[in-house]
Amino acid sequence: MEKLLKYASFFYTVVGIRPYTNGEESKMDRLRYRIVFWANVINLSFVGICESIYAYSAFKDNKFLEAVTVMSYIGFVFVGLSKMFFIRWKKTAITKLIDELKEIYPRGSIQEEKYNLPMYLGTYSRIILTYSSLYSVLIWTFNLFCVMEYWVYDKWLNVREVGKQLPYLMYIPWKWQDNWSYYPLLFIQNFAGLTSAAGQISTDILLCAVATQLVMHFDFLSKSMERHELSGHWKKDSRFLVDIVRYHERILRLSDVMNDIFGIPILLNFMVSSFVICFVGFQMTVGVPPDIVVKLFLFLVSSMSQVYLICHYGQLVADASHGFAVATYNQNWYKADVRYKRALVIIIARSQKVIFLKATIFLDITRSTMTDLLQVSYKFFALLRTIKLQSTFYTSLHTSCAYEFSLLVTLYIGGVLISFRIEK
């Protein structure tokens, strides 16, 4: 079990969160985690507030491209903070979920072979290592890009004067470029970027770990049902059926708990990810330098990979739950007692109700959700292009920035929710 949870535990440690209790915690451990968590939250909130002030000022000063750039940073901060607080809020529910999963986790080499545990664990490890590595490359590329530009272009090649820059645009009420305060600001922004990335990665990995176990149990249930040799005696076969139904009901209940815990973070993640994909794509089409395009491309790929990861595991859960109905039908039921056959009809009817990974009531997560998200992102990308090109709206944005800015964001969020709900 710890092999599945070790990756999530590592990134949660970075942000000062223990998502579930594993035995008794000492007062010193609780104090250390609390200090790390609130230090991360305060620093990330400070950066997010300063970025919001900068975005407001950029809209007011008619700097549309800079405002869009900062909005993508704000979305990144918002997702990280929301996932951290939701996991901390649901700690008790997560602990109960993990304890129940431990109870039915295969133990010993014989059970591991029956459940095909090495295959699930190997696939999960490869996917998570690739995903976390990609996200780590993204965040450190963003954090260190301005420093590398300064040392390569300004100090080493002497091809252009770059000067001291910060990784993210945010409001700073003093001149920091030639001041000692540049270094604390650089550290603060690097720290905030790391916190937001770790907060997102850890929650995604924990979700994938739980989904992997549910898929494993659904598949084992299907194999047990399909391969079971019936005796033709009602009492003997009915005992097997009772065990199968109880096992199935337990997995269904765990699926509901998983959706209750991760539903709201997934919904926020999808909304803000479409927001970020739209804004980053817009920046890449307005003639930025090639080196900036590379950085934006990494940001775009990482945001899309985060969404696809969730969609991929949502599809696996849906396929595994539906596979139980197919396996039940494929059993040699024609040899069974008529009462057994009637019971199978009820089981098939229940298992045909597919279990989805849900973003609350708005969205059932499958791979097709990725297509829906990209379509919504493209629609608002086209809206941004229209706003940029039409001078009349551009002028009105300058004269009444607060009203137009809030209206645009409200329309965007409302459009995403309506689009997802209509698609469902």
Element layout with pairings:
Blueprint: H1 2-15, H2 27-60, H3 64-89, H4 91-103, H5 108-115, H6 117-156, H7 182-227, H8 234-284, H9 290-330, H10 338-351, E1 357-359, E2 363-365, H11 367-389, H12 391-399, H13 401-423
Antiparallel strand pairs: 1-2
Helix pairs in contact: 1-7, 2-3, 2-7, 3-7, 3-8, 4-8, 6-7, 6-9, 7-8, 7-9, 8-9, 8-10, 8-11, 9-10, 9-11, 11-13, 12-13
Order of strands, main sheet, comes to 1-2
Please tell me the overall pLDDT: 82
**Beta-strand content estimate:** under 5%
Shape: elongated
Structural class: mainly alpha
- What is the CA–CA distance across the termini? 34 Å
Could you list the spans in which at least 5 consecutive residues all have pLDDT below 50? 391-407
Oligomeric grouping of the chains: single chain
The helix content is over 70%
Main sheet record: 2 strands, antiparallel
Question: How many separate helices?
Answer: 13
- Rg, rounded, reads 25 Å
Q: How many β-strand runs?
A: 2
SSE pattern = HHHHHHHHHHEEHHH
Describe, in short, the structure shown.
The protein has 424 residues and is mostly helical. It has 13 helices and two strands; from the N terminus they run H-H-H-H-H-H-H-H-H-H-E-E-H-H-H.
